[in-house]
Amino acid sequence: MTLLSIENLSKRFSSGGRDIAALKDVSLTIADGKTLGLAGASGSGKSTLARILMRLIPPDAGTVRFEDEDWLTLSGSDLRRRRAKIQMVFQDVLGAFNPRATVASVLDDPLRIHAIVPKAERPKEIAALLDRVGLPASYVARSIREVSGGQRQRIAIARAIATRPSLIVFDEAVSALDVSIRGKILELLVELQEERGIAYLFVSHDLAVLRAVSHRIAVMDAGRLVESGPAEQMIENPQSQAARALIAAVPRLVIEPTRDSAHDV
Ligand SMILES: Nc1ncnc2c1ncn2[C@@H]1O[C@H](COP(=O)(O)OP(=O)(O)OP(=O)(O)O)[C@@H](O)[C@H]1O
Description:
Blueprint: E1 2-15, E2 18-31, E3 35-40, H1 46-53, E4 61-66, E5 69-70, H2 76-83, E6 86-89, H3 93-96, H4 103-113, H5 122-132, H6 149-162, E7 167-171, H7 179-196, E8 199-203, H8 207-213, E9 216-221, E10 224-230, H9 231-236, H10 241-248, H11 259-263
Parallel strand pairs: 3-8, 3-9, 6-7, 7-8
Antiparallel strand pairs: 1-2, 1-4, 4-5, 9-10
The site of adenosine-5'-triphosphate has 13 residues, from strand 1, strand 2 and helix 1.
Pfam families: ABC_tran
Keywords: ATP-binding, Nucleotide-binding, Transport
Organism: Neorhizobium petrolearium
């Protein structure tokens, strides 16, 4: 079943007297419980697409259907009610959260705002969320700046799953992490998806990362979607120059196992 369907999305920016077409007529779909990897060089329009989906900026043209609703025209209480269903994890978690906030308050906010569980049950829910992302319950008292980059990313994941979303958008969410920590976080994300049926839009310039998590991969180049298909097929038989350039940037890509072969999905 299609969870999200983007049609003919376009967005221009003007900056310093220049007119930039950040997105040109982009269409794509994401299936329930599956991962679409969105690849592309810096400036190709990936973050613009993610920001439009999160309703942070409006597009100039195009439509987004999410869970059979016209997502971009939802407003007021309808939008507030539905917002919980799409969550986002950024690269820069420290920038996204107040660094002095405690882990408890970072996780309590979404539970309270979206009334996920009754107030009396929130501490138990927070402990369960921390446990699910591999952190001890004692972390509730720490501030965001006191925890390591990998732990912070686990907290961001706990916060994202707190509202029981059907889609999580990851924007370069593991790019800043060391390779070994990155691998563990990607494993956690694959597990969470299989357990909870959450769909992912995984934005990255790194095809090795996308290969580990994606069922399908779409490639952007200068605002256009130039290629999309099953992850394995895209990597073994790229059709576009943009895809070939991304593959050439990851020398070990062709011999590493894919999600499809490793998890049989
Ligand atoms: N607020 C803005 N004002 C002006 N130009 C912008 C703005 N946001 C994005 N752009 C431009 O739009 C184009 C697409 O940017 P976008 O950030 O979507 O690309 P990206 O693929 O996510 O790149 P990166 O991987 O570097 O984040 C770029 O040329 C960028 O400079």
